[in-house]
Amino acid sequence: MTNLVVVLAKKCHLIQTDIQPTLTDLQEGQLPGDHIPGVVPEIYKVRTRNADSAKGKSGGYRIIYQKTPENTIRT
User: Fold this and answer.
1) pTM
2) Where are the domains of the chain?
């Protein structure tokens, strides 16, 4: 887990479970989410539910990540 996830886990106990499907997609080479147009390099935004909140995706996490030319993903 990244340092940010560790900090958020103190408040949002299920964060690792909630974001794991998105992380798995990224590790498999998929590019989930919406491409943010007009930004170079390619930036994507994914909304993921927060099981600790009863508001669905609107109360969930926003994961912003960058596709680099070397096909590595930075979050």
Assistant:
1) 0.69
2) 3-74
